[in-house]
Amino acid sequence: QVQLVESGGGLVQAGGSLRLSCAASGLTFSRYAMGWFRQAPGQEREFVAALTWSGGGVYYRYYADSVKGRFTISRDNAKNTVYLQMNSLKHEDTAVYYCAAGRPQTYYSGSDYQAWGQGTQVTVSS
């Protein structure tokens, strides 16, 4: 039974920062790719960031163009936790953010992930 529990969302003014956390259980954490997706009101779910593992302790990070340079995905294997550090937040970043785990063939495809968190609301004021 894989479970992902998210935290860290909230209300922040434009230009501010937030760090989202996703604590995982029921899986061998270091062997799974982790991703962050978001869904704004009235919009489709979109890819935000992913961290994949290729073996040998090598990890790769990927970002959507809309967040590249502002967001950073990271993981702490000892804590079974993945993070999304969000800096220079914009109003258009407002969305429900979801953590996902799996073994995706395509890191930006949500359908390739097997487990999802409950989502955490991020609201950025103008």
Notes on the protein architecture:
- With 126 residues, the chain is mainly β.
- 0% of the residues lie in helices and 56% in strands.
- It has strands at 3-7, 10-13, 18-25, 33-39, 46-55, 58-63, 71-76, 81-86, 95-102, 113-116, 120-125.
- The strands form two sheets. Strands 2, 4, 5, 6, 9, 10 and 11 form a seven-stranded mixed β-sheet that branches. It has a four-stranded antiparallel β-sheet with strand order 1-3-8-7, with no helix packed on it.
- A hairpin with a 6-residue loop joins strand 4 (33-39) and strand 5.
- It starts with a strand and ends with a strand.
Number of strands: 11
Structural class category:
mainly beta
Distance between the terminal alpha carbons, to the nearest Å?
Answer: 40 Å
Question: What is the makeup of the main sheet?
Answer: 7 strands, mixed
Alpha carbon gyration radius: 14 Å
Which percent bin holds the helix content? under 10%
Query: Which ranges are low-confidence, i.e. pLDDT below 50, for 5 or more consecutive residues?
Result: none
Overall mean confidence score, pLDDT: 93
Helical run tally: 0
User: What is the approximate shape?
Assistant: globular
The portion of residues forming beta strands comes to: over 45%
Order of helices and strands: EEEEEEEEEEE
